[in-house]
Amino acid sequence: MTSEPGGRHASAVEEILAELQGGSRTVLVSGLPGIGKSTTVGMVAGRLARSGSVVQRVEADEMSRSRPFGLISGLLGIEAVYPPRPDTADRMVEAAEKLCAEGPVLLCADDLHQADSDSLDLLGWLSDMTRDLPLSLLLTRRPLPTRESLTVLAARPDVHVVELAGLAPDELDALVAARFGAAPGPSVQGLLAMTGGNPFHTRVMLDDLQRRGLLDTAGGMLTTTADATDAPESVQAGARTHLALLDPATRDLLQVLAVWGAPAFPEQLAAVTDSKPAALLGAIQAAVSSGVARWTDDERLAFQHDLYRDVVYSDLDPPLRRMLHSACAAELQAVGGTPSQVLQQSGAAAAADDASEAESALAVVATDLAHAPAQAADVLATAARQATALPPGPERTRLEDRIAVARTGVLAAAGRMAEALQVASEGLDRTDDPAVRSELVRLRLHHTVSAADIPGALAEIDRRLDGDPTPAARDALTQLRRWAVVLEGREPVGDGVPTGRTGAALLPAALDLFLAARSRQALRMVEQAVQARIDAGSPDWADGPTSPVMPPWCALHADGVEAARERSVEARRRAQEHGRGWQLPYHLFVAATIDYVAGRWDDALASVDSGLEATVVTGTGWLSRAVGLSLAIRTRRGELDVVAAGLDRWKLRALPEQYGLPVVGLAEMLLAEARGDVAAAGDLARRTWTGTLDTGRLLWALYAGPDTARVAAVAGDGDLLARIASDTATVPLDENTGFAPAADLVRAVAERDPDRAMAAASAFSGRGHVLGELGAWEEAAVAAAARGDADRARSCAARCTNVAGLVGATTVERRLTARLREHEVRLGVTGRRRRPSSGWDSLTPTELQVAELVGQGLTSPQIATRLYISPRTVQTHISHSLRKLGLSSRVELATTVSRHR
Questions:
Q1: pLDDT tens track for 338-378
Q2: Cβ density class 83-100: b for 16+ within 10 Å, e for less
Q3: What is the pLDDT of residue 833?
Q4: Closest Cα to residue 206, out of 1, 33, 38, 6?
Q5: Does 140 share its domain with 184?
Q6: Side-chain-facing half-sphere of 506: CA atoms under 13 Å
Q7: Over pLDDT 70: what percentage of the chain?
């Protein structure tokens, strides 16, 4: 019963084709066992193969869970390296790009509910790549068991989910008629109704009835003398009925295959049973001829349908099942199977009171799975279940404690913060060991702080401190409390004096220095924090874990754009080498800040978008600097409705402004100003300035001073303008070389001094600080106009519009024109020709660089290395280029590049 489907399944095939060819490009088919998922995928794959697509298809099995990156490696046709390396994600990206170099590709993966977790995590990357490659993904899963990664994937807006239902009664009738050459009569139709439209259930039921001689096609109609008691009540019961017809030797063979958990060579099955391959000849032939088993393309024996495997495995007596798992583990160990595969089999073979398998799991995670965090988390979850089966006592408690700490740490390092929180909480409810409790509390607090739940974190820290923690635990909690306070930014800035020399002690003190505008001192101290963590061998989630993110940001203020960019590239490289995936968004947000200041606004937006995508997995709540930066750029570019909608979404999330720096508030002020609501802009200017500077955050004076001073001047708020000038004058400029001209610019606004504004513009330009240069030329033009020097005003305005044209700052140009008009100065056509919104000339310099490297055949990871950006950001640039050029794939982009050389 595998003929072309009609009705519901035919509609599903057409729906899937439409999505793959012009819609979501990633389709996830979900349905019950036997409902026809694989058949539907086969129909779609056949259609696309005949139309010229390259089709690659893999099927996950029980053993897939123990092969890190195994499914996705097979899907892309590359070897799965064990132990996994830190560059695994980059290798997958390269493989996908090479695969798509010659034309459209369809990747099909069946039974993802059985796939390894690291492959499931990377499917999100592959789905992202469908935007700029001739690539489509067709995936299948059962509703149960649920897998968190699949739930996240299915929830993505660019993934189309098809819920495959059973066939309608008339479709079942057509299916039966095609098989038996006769339409089903009422008696058969009554039995068909029991199947729920499940094609597999229908087939095994009718096959069983036919074998028993209970079907008749006389008179051109299929009839039966059977009643409901003669038919299997479920699809599993139907498979069980079919299996019962096999001889004992064949059933024994199938039991071994079921426990092995994957297609197997006859020699492997023979080794497990300690027999010769020839001895299995009759059983293998019987299994295949019965339709229960089949040969794969690489001459392995596999179940015809995984339902057969499920039934055989579940019906196997537990002692026999453990015995076979033990034999499979021995065979895998003998032939060089990976430790994780051996562990999967030996763990299933272990007796309930055997702690050795959990110990083995801890060892494998520590040695082999450092760069496969999702797999490590799964292995430790199994170890935790094994530990709970041990007899109660000190040995079990110690083992459970070790597993809880290791598992929580792995989940935290992988960015799966919600799971880490749950595991840590369960461990705390169970253990009385002070050292373990201290570790789990710190891990749980790491999640709480990362999620930006500072009130919750502070409440727990204070509760723990009120207890009787050990001296080491008290010190760790005290340092974490200070860091949480710095992050939340509601209290006045501290004195910048560390209370110790650990990374956890140095980091909050360094941030206090930075917020107080002592950027050079902050840079030195945060470097000490980074080194302290290295010297101490601190885990990724503890002891000031975000220290490596901070030096580029501090250097931006202390030393300028170029020094900051070099540090940012190096920091991201090290993070990738050490597999610190949860830190990726923070690194990208700092890189975006550097690009924003340097006038590379498209690059900044690309980094922000990539970072925000990554936070879907990591769950961080510290998004204000990225969101505020994106909104500010879009406001300066005139995308006012987009910004207003973004602000509404931000306010609904009710997340804090990180470090007490109102970056989103600044964007809201810029939006009000751009919309001509001077009163609202002035109110926001006063609120953000006084609230920030009253708490000692002098860093804000250089970052936001010029914009806030301009708004205060336009709003006629002389008191605020004087306050801004006074505050900015107190900034130690030798500590902030990169932003130092901002002090002159603020004074120029307050005094309407064109000479000082022009000097600030030149100083900004020399530092590569394009954002500052843009504002300084605007103020120079307006100040000159206010003094009646129209020629000078036009000259400065031309410089301003020239810079504005480079970055696309249409709002600045409109504002400049309006402000000069107030002084009777009108501008003609000035500045650079604006970059068009589409076509080759619309590409930014970075987009042109990326396109050129695509044309040279470089992969995204190779381009990322060449340009010192992340592979995700490369993909974003390619997507932007494709949209601007009206292209659909990087192959077309490469062709277009060759025409423009």
A1: 999 999 999 888 876 677 888 999 999 999 998 888 889 99
A2: ebeebbbbbbbbbbbebb
A3: 53
A4: 1
A5: no
A6: 24
A7: 97
- Whether the per-residue pLDDT at 576 is higher than 70: the answer is no
**How far is the C-alpha of 670 from the C-alpha of 636, rounded, in Å?**
8
Q: What is the CATH number of the domain that holds 855?
A: 1.10.10.10
Host domain of residue 228: 169-242
Per-residue confidence (pLDDT) for residue 593, from 0 to 100:
98
For 180, phi then psi, to 5°, come to -105, -5
pLDDT tens per residue, range 721-776: 999 999 999 999 999 999 999 999 999 999 999 999 999 999 999 999 999 999 99
Residues 238 and 101 in one domain: no
> Is the full-model pTM beyond 0.85?
no
Do 96 and 223 lie in one domain? The reply is no
The order of strands in the sheet holding 135-141 is: 54-59, 105-110, 135-141, 26-30, 160-163
Alpha-carbon distance of 132 to 872, in angstroms, equals: 12
Res 326: pLDDT:
94
Task: State the CB neighbour count (10 A cutoff) for residue 416.
Answer: 26
Same domain, residue pair 237 and 101? no
Q: Is residue 509 included in any domain, yes or no?
A: yes
Of 32, 31, 24, 13, the residue nearest 156 (C-alpha): 24
Q: Which two tokens stand for residue 665?
A: 């508030």
The residue out of 115, 136, 163 marking a domain boundary is: 163
Do both 16 and 157 map to the same domain? yes
Residue 322 has pLDDT above 60, yes or no: yes
Which pLDDT does position 144 carry in this prediction? 85
Strand 105-110 vs strand 215-216: parallel, antiparallel, or unpaired?
unpaired
| 455 prior amide bond cis, ω within 30 | no
Q: Hey, which of 209-223, 241-255, 402-416 has the most confident mean pLDDT?
A: 241-255
| C-alpha–C-alpha distance, residues 616 and 38, integer Å | 30
Confirm if 686 and 518 have CB atoms less than 8 A apart. Answer: no
40 & 122 share domain: yes
Q: Give the tens place of pLDDT for each residue, 848-863.
A: 888 888 888 888 878 8
Q: Give dist(CA 528, CA 612) in Å, integer.
A: 29
Q: Is the peptide bond between 145 and the residue preceding it cis, with omega within 30 degrees of 0?
A: yes
With respect to residue 804, please indicate whether it lies within any of the assigned structural domains: yes
Show which of 163, 194, 227 is a domain's final residue. Answer: 163
